[in-house]
Amino acid sequence: MTARVTIDIQDHIADVRFNRPDKLNALDREQIDAIIEAGKELSAAKGVRAVVLSGNGDAFCAGLDMSLFQPGNAVTTNLTDRSHGNANIFQHIVLQWRRLPAPVIAAVHGACIGGGLQFASAADIRIVHPAAKMSIMEMRWGLIPDMGSYATWRNFVRDDVLRELTYTNRIFSGEEAGELGFASHLSDDPHAKAMELAREIAGKNPHAIQAAKRLINALPDMDEDAILMMESREQDGVASHPNQIEAVMAFMQKRAANFID
Length: 261
Description:
Elements: E1 5-10, E2 13-18, H1 29-44, E3 50-55, H2 89-99, E4 104-108, E5 111-113, H3 115-122, E6 125-128, E7 133-135, H4 149-153, H5 159-168, E8 172-173, H6 174-180, E9 185-186, H7 190-202, H8 206-218, H9 224-238, H10 242-252
Parallel strand pairs: 2-3, 3-4, 4-6, 5-7, 6-9
Antiparallel strand pairs: 1-2, 7-8
Helix pairs in contact: 1-2, 2-3, 8-9
């Protein structure tokens, strides 16, 4: 069978693609399992400095497959069980992208609905096609948004915007997503733009990038004292170390840096 998620790692960049194009990359049981395995592989991969997450075919991800609403197929029982650390399985498949050591850039086109929007929201950066169709769709099915979305949205979505989009489940364009905070950048070729940005990130000190991501991830849960201490500890972990010295030397000598992962 064709892999449901493909991973191509070159030049320290993991090009990760949802690969169920005939179903707009919707999430059935097999797709969920494949995404979990992809997360495990990337967590263990050596030398990955940036991840680009996209979808093959006409969509990024159209959310849950309707088959999950059928008796016997649902993964919706016992959602309070913490099967993956502090998360259930649905929360884990989304939050694992936020928790990867390397920055994740989502390249969004076509449908990015429900779970698809939640995957994009967990990325560090979102590059979105202006004509993409996006929605917090769960209220259509009588559900609330989940999959860890509130943990990511609290960082970048305005309160009244989140309320309106949740209560109405209306579809909004990629262009509007830029105005609402869901898109970091708009591009007619999101994947190419995401790869360009990934190459820039991959050329930086990977230990400093990872430390910065840890600090940014932790910000919403910390008071000022904790932020200042974590900042100092992370800086201690990179300052005067070989990669930091190499960054300075490469800049002074006007050459590409040769970092150690």
